[in-house]
UniProtKB/TrEMBL annotation:
A zinc finger (C3H1-type) spans 262-292. This is tRNA (uracil-O(2)-)-methyltransferase. Adenosyl-L-methionine (AdoMet)-dependent tRNA (uracil-O(2)-)-methyltransferase. Residues 262-292 form the C3H1-type domain. It is found in: Cytoplasm. It comes from Uria aalge. Belongs to the TRM44 family. Its EC number is 2.1.1.211. It is an enzyme of class 2 (transferase). The keyword Cytoplasm applies. Keywords: Cytoplasm, Metal-binding, Methyltransferase, S-adenosyl-L-methionine, Transferase, tRNA processing, Zinc, Zinc-finger.
Amino acid sequence: RSSYSCCYFVLPCCYFDFHGKYSRRQSKKTQYREYLDFVAQVGFVCGFRVEEDCLRIPSTKRVCLIGKNRTYPPTERALIDKQITEYINNRQTCPVVTHDRRAGFNHKDHSDIFKEAGSELPENETETAGTIWMPGFQPREKVEQIRNCASLPRDFVDDVVLSVANLLLSAAPQKSCSNMNGGNTNTWNQGESLSLKEVAEHLNKETLKRLKSEYGGLQTLLKNNHQVFEVLNGRVHIRDWRKEKPSRKTKPEVKRRLSAEAFKTRLCWFFLHHPDGCSLPSESCPYAHGTEELR
C-alpha cells in the first residue's frame, strides 16, 4: 500500500492478524497452512500476484510469500485502496480502532491530503506521502547499524585480543594435563582462566566504553575471536586446539582427499603471538603458519 512500485517478501511465523492474534476459521487445514493462505490472501487483496516458495533454512516454518507484480494498472490505485480499506475493516476485531485513525479506515484521496498540507510534492514522492496509517509508526533506517562487534576496526579488535591473551598468559599457568596419547602438555603455556569481570577490570576505560556500545560487549568480541579464546560459563580461556574434537559431519570424498593447508585463508594467531608458538604442527593446524601456507 506504500506505493505502486512496492514489492514484498514475507516469511510468516507467528499467527497474528491486523489487530491481534489470528483466529482459526477452517478446521480441515493445519494452523500453519491456514495462516499461510491468509497472508497470501492479504497480498491478493492488495493487488499482487502472490508467489510461494520454500526456503532452505533450518526451520519448520520456512515457506515464504513474494509479491513482485501487480494485478491492476496504476490508474486503478484508488479503487484497490478502497478495497484494501474495506478488507481491513471487515477483519477488524477491536471496536476501539475507529475512523479517527488515518490508517486507511477513512482514507482520503491523495490529492486532498496534499492540498491540506499546503505543498506540492515531487512526482516520485507523491506515492508515499500522506500514507501514515498508524500513529507513531517509525520504519527502520535503510541502513541498519551493525552492533555485534563485527564492524569494529580490525586494529582495535587485534589490540583487545592481544591484551586479553597476554593477561591470561601472564597469570599463573594451569596444572599440566595429559593429551589423548598420554603425552604431557605442560610444555605449552595454556595460561589461566579469568572471569569476564576480571578481564574487564584490566582494560582501559576508553576500550570498555567502546565495547559497551556494541551488543554483547566484551563477551561478544571474545567469542567472535574463537580461534584464540573459549568463553564458558562466564570465564575466558585460551583455546587449546589439541583438545578440539574433530567435526562429526562427514565431508565429501573430494574434500577429504585435499590437504588441510589448501584451505588455509587466515594466519595462525598462536604462531604469530604466543610465546610458545602454536600447540599444533603446521600440517594439523587449520590456520596458516606463515604467509607461504595461505591459499
